[in-house]
Amino acid sequence: MLAEGRGLVVEHRGVTLVGPVDIAIKRKEFWGVVGPNGAGKSSLLRAIAGLEPMTSGTLELSGRDGRRSIGLLFQHHDFVPELPLTVSDVVGAGRSGRVAFGPLRGAGDRQAVEDALDLFGLTAMRHRLYRELSGGERQKVQLARLLAQEADLLLLDEPAAGLDLDWQERFNMLVAELHRKTGAAFVMVTHEVHHLPPCCDRVLLLRDGRAMARGTPTEVFTEALLSALYGCRMEVSRRGGRFFAHSLGSAGDTG
Predict the structure, then answer these.
(1) Sheet architecture: strand order including 30-34
(2) Any idea where the domains of the chain sit in the sequence?
(3) What digits encode the pLDDT tens for the residues 155-210?
(4) Any residues with CB less than 8 A from the CB of 74 and at least 6 apart, and which?
(5) Which residues in the chain come in under a pLDDT of 50?
(6) Quick one: which of 102, 178, 166 has its CA closest to 135?
(7) What CATH code would you report for 1-69+153-167+182-255?
(8) DSSP summary character for residue 165
(9) Are the C-beta atoms of residues 8 and 18 closer than 8 Å to each other?
(10) Rounded distance, CA 165 to CA 149, Å?
């Protein structure tokens, strides 16, 4: 088991944001954490990353050679805009697993960055300033940074938020490619079911900080469960290995 949380509870100023929640993440699994705004999805992700203190519960992490290696991509993961950082600089930051810049330490570091730039088609724009890129281009660079990091567990918090429809679809394919290329375990938070790529094999439905259901996408993406999750009547369809959910109106609307 790569990560296992039992009875996770996160509170802030006496208000319970998450919990209690159990989650067990195996190597190479792709987890989707789905729920409405305010469900506690981001707080759960930050607790797994060690950025949000847990009020109670246990969390055990393991990695290659006993190391814990976690890569993070938040909804607004921008670097300081005043710094003249290039695309290559940002991707290279992944080699330390944190925002740090300067000459790469060895041939392995340089090769990892070159491979990441190449996979995501960024080689030709490696010298462009990150701050001048579009939102979709920045997210593409951030995925390349995660690839270069070679982490065991990758945490993505609403990574497609703010992208136009075309970039949402392109980003979905890029996330799937990143999962295939790295073989890492993923946990992706979203409130849009269709943002999860076809490689997603486990889902946790979260509402008011509590787990409503967990299982395979086929098991949990049902009209009954999603209607209860979002508080309105939902219609569910599946195309190309992905699930799509559409609201049919309020739960009390029979017209």
Answers:
(1) 70-73, 153-157, 185-190, 30-34, 202-207, 210-215
(2) 1-69+153-167+182-255, 78-150
(3) 999 888 878 888 889 889 989 998 998 889 999 999 999 999 999 999 999 999 99
(4) 157
(5) 65-66, 97-102, 254-255
(6) 166
(7) 3.40.50.300
(8) H
(9) yes
(10) 28
